[in-house]
Amino acid sequence: MFKTNLELLFVFATFISVFTFSGCKNTTEHQSDAEAVKIIFLHHSTGHVIWKGQSGGLKSILGKKEAIPGWFENYNKTNNTNYQISEQNFPKADPYGWNNYPYDYYNIWVENAGSEPYKDEPTLEILTKDYDVVIFKHCFPVSNILEDTGNPDTLSPEKRKENYKAQYAEIKKKLNEFPETKFILWTAAAHVKSNVTEEEAKRTLEFVNWVITEWDSPDDNIYLWDFYSLETEGELYLKEEYSAKKGDSHPSAKFGERVAPLFAARIVDVIENNGKTTNLKGEQK
Questions:
Q1: In 3D, which of 199, 186, 154 has the Cα closest to residue 251?
Q2: Are the C-beta atoms of 67 and 53 separated by less than 8 Å?
Q3: What is the DSSP letter of 246?
Q4: In what order do the strands lie in the sheet containing 37-43?
Q5: Which domains, ranges and CATH numbers included, belong to the chain?
């Protein structure tokens, strides 16, 4: 019996070694003669769920790649393209602070624009020198929108539709200053029902609709990925079955795995067709 157990252990170890080695071999990037298109995804934790998908644990040991890098590696191999995508937290917790709402993009990219980083964060002048596509998003607290006061203020971090709209107007002008760079903005991430009031949720829907129908312009260098619609499916909240766990506004890894190909397809469509062959969710028209 002891010998049999040792033999089984040896077989299992060999099995893991083979798959781990295979996984390492599969990490070799596809080499293409095509000119590189460099893409940067700026995000926090919700974005990382989509980036990662269901990789991790045993799947990681067996060589499963994170969802977005894996999708692009396969696409490059199949289509002889050279799309190089990377990701980073933006802004970092220190020194700027873990806030990526309309005020913060306005503050870093418009109010403090220039060739030098602001509080260790790259401005658009810096990002556009290194990347052909810049993708950015907000985390779900963006949905805790207070009632308007009648006095919009671009310099206010208060989460109000009037401030968001004023900040977005200035952000749009700034993005348009870099016509050679394509920008992709996620629509707002939603909360689960327990983490937001109905009034706040309705204001979020109104803001998302404004971004899609009024703020976004055809034939410029700014594009959308409608993450909000994928999370809510016509409702006001992140659907409970898409939540990481009860009361958590982070989406689950399963949800991330499902929508990652839509995100990736939308990016490629923006690069290749100016976003004309997919809808805002990344589905083929």
A1: 186
A2: yes
A3: T
A4: 83-89, 37-43, 133-136, 182-186, 222-225
A5: 31-273 (3.40.50.1110)
